[in-house]
Amino acid sequence: MADYPYFPLFIDLSSKKVLVVGGGNIALRRIRALLGFTDRVTVVAPRLHSELLPLEAEGKVTVLRRAYAPGDAEGADLVLAATDDPEVNEAVHSDCNRLGIPVNVSSDRHGSDFYFPGIARKGGYVAGITASGHDHSGAKKLTEAIRELMEKLD
User: Is residue 2 very low, low, confident or very high in pLDDT (cuts 50, 70, 90)?
Assistant: First the structure.
């Protein structure tokens, strides 16, 4: 099979249920990005980054303070596995594959159905950037450059 880049796809998440497994730095960054597109984010994690606590208190995310359990992904439309535990990430991946739910595993580009892009947004303009899992630093730089360009829009 050829090594094609991933196809960019923009979807309406406003009515979709998004599950994020993990409560650390990566989960925090992804949750912050997601909240610009939906208010239906559920987090499953035994511990939370301190910056997630206000989001929970304000009702912006629903938090289940416990370890991931088989079946937690049921009913989700999109799942992100963002833990530092490869076994948990694999369990999430396996459940999502069984249930037919698109999943992103932050630590495994081959174990993901989609990449979580760098996001540049201003008003209704949204750009998603990926380096197809090969150059995160380059994708981050390009995302920042696009954000700067968007700031010049009137």
Answer: low
For the segment 81-110, what is each residue's pLDDT rounded down to a tens digit? 999 999 999 999 999 999 999 999 988 877
Give the position of tokens 């511990």.
47
DSSP 8-state assignment for residue 110: G
**Neighbouring-strand partners of residue 64:** 44
Q: Where are the domains of the chain?
A: 18-111, 118-151
The beta-strand segments (E) located in the chain are 18-21, 41-44, 61-64, 78-81, 103-105, 118-122, 125-129
pTM: 0.91
* Superfamily of 18-111 according to CATH: NAD(P)-binding Rossmann-like Domain (3.40.50.720)
